[in-house]
Amino acid sequence: MSCSKLFLGDLPAELTYEIIKYFQNDFSTLHSCIFVNRLLCRLVIPLLWENPFSFHTGKYDFIEIYLNHEYKIINNTFNCFLKYLNTFELFISVAKWFDSARNSKFGIRTGVSEQNFERFITMSLFKIFIKNEVNLHTLEIKALSIYDRELNEILELILQNQNFIHNIGNLKVNYIRGDNDNTIINNHISQMIHLHQNLKKILIYGNYLSLYQLLLSKDYYWSNTLNIIIFYDVDFSVVINLDKVFERLNVLESIHIINCSLNNYFTQQIINLTKPFKLKSLILNEVTQIESLQQLLLKS
């Protein structure tokens, strides 16, 4: 009965939208809803365009719609629906679009290498998003090393347009390299995080301690915004002044320590805190110092 009401458009638009959102990751279902009635079409289109690079359907025509200046209304309308952008998914989508378009009726022929052409398309898309002032819910910085050049150019473009950073609700960094593997990209990422003045959650992974150095910086702006810190696979024997970091954070709600290496020095820093140590998760591969662990738990 409820399904028939949904497809006939008998339910209020607000309730219909809440139901449709359950299918936001199901491309085929959302796409089929477009042809049911005008109401469903109007409600579904924003969901289809809020994270288009995540749909692995084998069809990448939406890239042409972004790029095609003949559809003026599309350029102005569909951009505003974009809410989630993952740089790695962007790179992959452009590469697959190029492969399919090259063999299609368009017959793409360029005087440049495939890699340079794909990089040009990627940068063009990002410039379109910045020009149209999209308000992203989440931007995830992620890439394999083969895309480091593309990622570096995108980060430089973003840093040249700081309003784009301020319009990002959630900034996720999933760029796992050693601090010395790509200093330029690491520095760009650090600058982006520094400029994101409403940071609420941060993950410090392994030996990538550039984020930790930012926390120690005296001119960062997160004292009254950062709620969650996650330490993952961190060797705390190389982390100093941790107590200074926690003392500066005024609205910290939870600390998560996962697969890290603890020691007496780390525990002593925590014991010296004047503020509560709000440990919510503690997952260890091995426990070698029982007394230190007990002291840590007593402080939490």
TrEMBL record:
Its lineage reads: Eukaryota, Fungi, Fungi incertae sedis, Mucoromycota, Glomeromycotina
Protein species of origin: Rhizophagus irregularis (strain DAOM 181602 / DAOM 197198 / MUCL 43194) (Arbuscular mycorrhizal fungus)
Q: Which protein are we looking at?
A: F-box domain-containing protein
